[in-house]
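Pasting as-is:
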Amino acid sequence: MKTFGIVGWRNSGKTTLMVTLLPELIKRGFLVSTVKHTHHKFEIDKPGKDSHRHRLAGAKEVLIASSGRWALIHELGDDPEEDMEALIARMTPVDLLLIEGYKNHRHAKMEVHRPAIGKPLMCPDDASIVAVASDEILADVPVPLFDLNDIAGIADFIADHCQLAVEPHVGGT
């Protein structure tokens, strides 16, 4: 399974790029999944719901299932955050796994950069950043530079960089 990341400073537009890029890659025939890293604690079930009560009662994992989707909630407790390889291994294989965040991991990444945020480019100090997408023209960028709105061009770059080829999918994967 090929992996490619989207990184950037807070409020740079990573999620906006991800949700715009996904339909473009999917319409080209690729099966795409995502991983989203957050530095915040998060909840995907609601207090009072049975699954939430199961977790509060001490379940290490809770799987919630319906006819439309399922989700597995794994409680880390005092265990350290799982590394990227372990998380990727849990994913069902697809053509491309797009990863939002995890800027310190060594997978190939595109940096989303908005000069108005006032933060420096990350790419000069990170060899795993292979391209930059920005809302402004930038000078002296050591990797390919894309207009943040050039979704087709960004998708072309990712497909080429990851050597993705559309093949018939049997059984959904």
